[in-house]
Amino acid sequence: MRILHLSKFYPPDPGGLEHVVARLAEGAAARGHVVRVIAATGSGWARKPGQRVTEPPRQGVVVVRLPTHGIVWSQPLAPGYVTAARWPADVVYLHRPHPLADLATLGVRHPLIILHHSDVQRQRAARAAYLPLAHKVARRAAAVVVAAAANLQHAEDLGPEGRAKARVIPFGVDEVRFSPKEAASRPAAFPPPSAGPVGLFVGRLVSYKGLDVLVRAMAGTKLNMVAIGGGPERARIEAMAAESGVGHRMTFAGEVDAVDLTRFYRAADYLVLPSTTPAEMFGVVLLEAMACGKPVITTALSTGVTEVSQRDVTGLEVPPGDHEALRAAMLRLAGDAALRRRLGTAGRERVLANFTLKGMIDRHLALCEEVASRR
């Protein structure tokens, strides 16, 4: 089967959506399918203007990176996208939010699957123009997938017909790569063991992730925190941490590679995901931490976050934006090793039962076979 993925970007460009696309693409290629990904060139790629690059297969996946002439409202301007999407696939995946890919599918006659990661979030000024297109594409899609049932209440871009045909296939992680082994060595970003338990944040440093709430929660305590990731909020949050007197206990490690990421999870005592808005639709980092046997602290959002970690079973939950409640939860985990072990063990078991990478790939490939057979 020939499978085409339409994505904004693709690794090594960072991002949760990009991570999921890569896992699905590589998983299908490993099963013998022919897989291609169309993506714009991200900020980390130095390309000559107008240059389209078809990369040699990596993990069995051919990636076509298109020249990008700037980004407007989080949308890469890649005019070659529409033409590139006409590759003769048996099944086409549209990874939303990605209005340019929606437009490209109008010229595609192959079975279409929409994997709805989230609605367009910040570009409200363009929604009046985008929604008719979004609903039209959702109506003609052979199938629609969301990672959690709760996410459907935040899926206005699908329209009523798209939501009616949606099915839930949760994201999954590699439970072998992410496992509760002892860290081979403590990353340099971590304080010495004598400093006490260390919390970990993993994600883009953007406003909805709640890093400002995390800084306020740490103020006046001896809590330690390591933050992995980059983004437009980094300078502001670092300055805020310094002004709040927690700069020496909150380390900003920047982007880390795949090998180092598992070392960070294993060296940490717990994970904090303090997101403040429904823009946090799932939280794959929760699965990664739970697979490593680590307890998590999440916020009570009306999205798939609450379907990943179970309150008081695999982690603690606090109201979004409540720094005092977050502080109490962090102090509770930092001060109770037995609780950390109990929640961490339950988290690992939950991942093995519900959120494995193999399970995700199996269900998506079964869906591909289903929609291709209807043609």
Model description:
By secondary structure, the protein is an alpha/beta fold. The chain has 2 domains: 2-172 and 356-374, Glycogen Phosphorylase B (Rossmann fold), CATH 3.40.50; 193-354, Rossmann fold (3-Layer(aba) Sandwich). The chain is 36% helix and 18% strand. It has 13 helices and 16 strands. It has helices spanning 16-30, 81-84, 99-105, 127-140, 159-164, 211-218, 234-243, 258-267, 284-291, 305-308, 323-334, 337-354, 357-374; strands at residues 2-6, 34-40, 53-54, 61-66, 71-72, 75-76, 91-96, 112-116, 143-146, 166-168, 198-202, 224-228, 250-254, 270-272, 296-299, 315-318. An 8-stranded mixed beta sheet has the order 3-4-2-1-7-8-9-10. Helix 1 packs across helix 13 (357-374). It starts with a strand and ends with a helix. The model is unreliable at 44-49 (pLDDT under 50).
**Largest beta sheet: what is the strand line-up?**
3-4-2-1-7-8-9-10
- In DSSP terms (H or I, runs of 4 or more residues), the helix count works out at 13
Poorly predicted spans: 44-49
By helix and strand content, what is the structural category?
alpha/beta
Query: What is the chain-wise order of helices and strands?
Result: EHEEEEEHEHEHEHEEHEHEHEHEHEHHH
Architecture of the largest domain, CATH level 2?
Answer: 3-Layer(aba) Sandwich
The description of the largest β-sheet is: 8 strands, mixed
Please tell me how large the radius of gyration is: 21 Å
Helix content: 25-40%
In CATH terms, what is the fold-level topology of the largest domain? Answer: Rossmann fold
What fraction of residues sit in β-strands?
15-25%
Shape: globular
Overall pLDDT score: 92
